[in-house]
Protein: Protein-methionine-sulfoxide reductase heme-binding subunit MsrQ
Organism: Gilvimarinus japonicus
Amino acid sequence: MPPILWRRVIILLLGLAPFAWISYATVTQQLGADPAKTIVLFTGEWTIYSLFFTLSVSPLVRFLKWRWLMPHRRMLGLFALFYALCHLFSYLVFILGLDMSRFFSELAKRPYITAGAPAILILIALGVTSTQGMMRRLGKNWQRLHKLVYLALFLGWIHVLWQVRSSYFDAVLYGVITAALLGIRAYWRWQQLQKRRAKAAMMNKSHT
Ligand code: HEM
């Protein structure tokens, strides 16, 4: 089997391992006093970790030249979507008992849910348009659309920050990682603009 396929299988198994663990722990009743809450917290955490992994690919390729990671970025992104859907469904089923009117009132009442919902909608839109066919069909707009992943991560972090009751540790840690992953993109964009400006200035000079 070619190395890319091996890596795909390994990433698939690693990505499914948290899901397998939480399913096993649920069936064997190892989730403590409040299993519903444990499942919601666990799947929420794996959503944000998967986003961290996905957005770490470009920096790792640029700084460490780990180009082999690039073809696996899509699968990592799809895991973020997968865990986000597990998170949402476990909240709807185990906490709200599928009472959708309660969901909409929570959406309006609790700012952390109001911030999390658009993040999930973005991840769904990105998952649906992640195929080669959609890439071709959307052309340049595909890249514009997929930049929304930065907003999804930011909203995910706001969602966590807004839930803090006692310890700020996770919220601060996730905030530092989010700031690093978004900050590096902002720096690359600034560098690109500087280069473009310098090139335009050179062209102007040569014309005068
Ligand atoms: C409609 C969308 C969402 C809903 C309804 C939702 C709901 C919840 C709920 C009810 C909790 C547990 C709060 C508690 O009782 O302590 C939670 C925790 C969490 N959620 Fe979400 N969530 C949503 C979207 C997201 C998204 C998009 C992310 C990640 C990008 C995310 C990441 C997390 C994390 C990391 C936690 C655990 C926070 C902690 O450790 O205290 N959630 N979410």
User: Anything to note?
Assistant: The first helix runs from residue 3 to 27. The two ends are 59 Å apart (CA to CA). Residues 37, 40-41, 44-45, 47-48, 51, 84, 87-88, 91, 113, 116-117, 119-120, 156, 159-160, 163, 170 surround protoporphyrin IX containing FE (CB under 6 Å).
